[in-house]
Predict the 3D structure of the following.
Amino acid sequence: MEHAKQLGELMAKQGIQLVYGGGNKGIMGAVANGVLDSGGQVIGIIPQLLIDWEQAHPGLTDLRVVADMHVRKKIMYELCDAAIVLPGGFGTLDELFEMLTWNSLKIHDKQIYILDTNKFYSPLIKHMHKMYEEEFLYSTVENRITVIHEPSQLMNYL
């Protein structure tokens, strides 16, 4: 949660607008709050289905309610300039792998960053290297993903 808040504060100070899923809970809620508390702009994209489940963030600059998860991801990808992946669950992995797939297929060329807080993603990154070694990937993991360990490192890239 500390990294999430720091990331949000850094983004706001650098004038980087946050585009995310629109929830008020968990790590992404903390990023959004960090951006907002530091005077930044936040766009949330949330499906109607998740408004009660995730509790839509009431203080966003722009909250867009959409029909479903597919529309949510499409709009988030269209609005973002890059993807920053923080520790999360199945939804986070779904978004990560869709971005990676679209990147591999040249549907987009947006940069993908993983904030590997406390080595949360290290086993997954190791597995992706194995996928490359076994020739299941078109290019190396490093060609698709930049791994950082501290929020401040991201500012070297954005």
Notes: The two ends are 21 Å apart (CA to CA). The CA atoms of residues 116 and 149 lie 5 Å apart.
